[in-house]
C-alpha cells in the first residue's frame, strides 16, 4: 500500500511546517497574476478569500521536512507498532540535508522528552520491526538512512533516540 513514517513520544512534539509552501486565496492569486481558470473565478459559490491554493516556488521544495500532528493516515497504524501516546507524521523526501534537519530537530525535542521513536512502516502489512536504540549524542545522518525509501521499502524499522 504505502510507506508511513512517523515519530512517537510520550509528550507532544513541536510541529514543523514546510517553509516553502504558502496557502493563498483566489483573490490573492489574482493580485499576484497567477492564472486561475475562468470557471473558478466566475463561480459565485466559491469563497474567493478562503486560502485554498497551495503555492510553492519549486517542485523540489514540496518535499522539505514537515512534522505534523494531523496525520494523513490513522494513528491506529502507529499504535500497531508503538506504545507511545503521541504521534507525529514525518512528511518529506529524504536527502542528507533534510536528514541533518531531522537530527537537529530530534536533539532539540529531547530537551522535553526522554526518548523519541522514529518509525518507517508499510501500511496494511504488519510484520516484526527491526528496532535499534541510540543515545542522542551519537545520532548522525547515517542512523536515519533507513528513512530513505528511494530504493524501495525493505522492512519496518524504528530508531529509538534517548537522552
Give an overview in words.
- 21% of the residues are buried.
- This protein has four helices and eight strands, in the order E-E-H-H-E-E-H-E-H-E-E-E.
- The radius of gyration is 19 Å and the shape is elongated.
- The strands form two sheets. Strands 4-5-1-6-8-7 form a six-stranded mixed β-sheet, with no helix packed on it. The chain has a two-stranded antiparallel ribbon with strand order 2-3.
- The two termini are 34 Å apart.
- It has two domains: 3-18 and 63-162, no CATH class; 21-56, no CATH class.
- It has 163 residues and is of the alpha+beta class.
- The mean pLDDT is 91.
What is the mean predicted local confidence, pLDDT? 91
Would you list the SSEs in sequence order as H and E?
Answer: EEHHEEHEHEEE
Low-confidence parts? none
Number of DSSP helical runs = 4
Largest β sheet strand count, sense and barrel closure: 6 strands, mixed
- Number of E-type strands: 8
Which shape, going by the Cα principal axes?
elongated
The amount of helix comes to: 10-25%
Strand content: 25-35%
> Cα distance, first to last residue?
34 Å
Count of spatially separate domains: 2
Structural class: alpha+beta
**Rg calculated over all Cα atoms:** 19 Å
Kindly report the spatial arrangement of strands forming the biggest sheet: 4-5-1-6-8-7
